[in-house]
Amino acid sequence: MARNSESSTYSPSIGLIYVFNLIVGTGALTLPAAFANAGWIISLCVILALSAISYVTLTFVVESMAAANAILRSKRAKQLIKKECLQRPNSPQEDSDSSTSSASTKSLLGRVKVRKTRSLCNSPNLYSSVMQSEDDYPTCSIINENSDMVVIPHENNLEECDIQETIEMGKLASLFFNRVGTILFFVCITIYLYGDLAIYGAAIGKSLRDTACTYFPVDVPCNETLNGTVACWEGSDLTRDNAYRLFLSIFVLLIGAFGFFNVQKTLLLQILTGLVRWTAFIAMIILACVRLLSSPKDNQGNPPVANVNGLPNLFGACVYSFMCHHSLPSLVTPISPKRGLFKLLALDYILIAGFYLLLGFTGIFAFPHLEDLYTLNFVPNRCPSNPAGNFTASILDAVMPKEAVTAAQQALFYFLTLFPVFTLSTSFPIITITLRNNLKQLFLRQNEADYSFFVRRLLFPLMALIPPTVLAIITSDISFLVGITGSYAGAAVQYIIPALLAFYARKELQKEFPLEPVRNAFASPFRHTFFVLFVLLWACASIGFVTYNHVLADK
Fold it and tell me: Is the same domain home to 334 and 291?
């Protein structure tokens, strides 16, 4: 938890872009296949409903962040003022000894003091005026050595509820939940991150395999996914499944090694990956639209109107695709000014929902068969027996001269199929480090320095890397991984935890400021307890429905 300096802040428009880029990631590439399986009308209804509920829980997280800022600043201020009052000089001889202490306390108070430019909490309470001026000492009307109750004269209104410190989800959980709740939080976030890494590994392994493996049997229809037992290259003993496992292992050995160190996703890297991401997404949408206009009807997609059997994976993919709650504090806190923050986030969600519908609907109507990772539908030369079945080639034939098609095909082939590799390679080490740190918080019960080098530096990175790698080796079915991760751990992180955080944050805020209610300017627009109960019931019903459908599918 760190206080944000002015130099680290950015404008609301930049914040909108950051949140947009955080939400729109690999999950978007799994939506077209999920749309095709569930049907277009169900997909439309589900994605609109889930985007709305995800926005509601996002406002719960913001409200909890504001409440946590107020509570932590109040506790610090009262502790510092209590200490200062107890150490006030009682005789002239102590003046010189106390001057250093007073100056130190004033410095600390200055660090916890918040802006006074506008009043967000117009209530006379225990934390009404930490400092009256740069030269005034805090005065104590009541002081008890064994009590936290320090009454401070009410002179200035401070912004108790302003979001100035980055308080991550783990800190929010430990602040508002009891020990059992905190452990359950870390279990949920850990399972989600394990699933996240497994999805990343599978996406990268499949992308590298489909880039490198060039053999396509003549007797296989163009609109079928190749079996894993097919040779990677003509005449080779290496199968596509083994090639996938080989590429996945090499990737984890090379990129996963960064999980043993501390790395950050710098602003430059964020900008570069953002440009690559949006170039790829826009290219896929344009190419799908061109294919819709140029290819014959019998070579286009014909998705069902509704298919209930496709709902579990659709639900998981949509939850996964709207996930940003676990990283929201680090993105929202630096936004300055925060006026109209909820409107800004609502605009983000409207744009993202529209983008997902555009990406998914162009895909399901343009292609008769959709891979679980959408980029793999743009692999050219995948069907030598039927040149018309080369999706990318047929698209390019319609928009450029024949002599330019080959070079453009290859450029587009490598760019689109390797797009997940470029973007996920930068995120994989960061997710690994986040998971490593969560595992430490979950299992270490004392100071980390008290443990051996093996435990501190080797055991937890290995615990973060090995399980998701094994899971990705066992199955390369990204739709399955996304469905399970999103439907269970994702639903807990996106629905249950934010709702409970908001509920308990409101109670803690009232407990911390007992004399008069504090008005939280960042309170969710959905502040009625009904919305908390609705989200919890929705999450339980959704998880139950998905589980029921998985059980039926197994039968």
Answer: yes
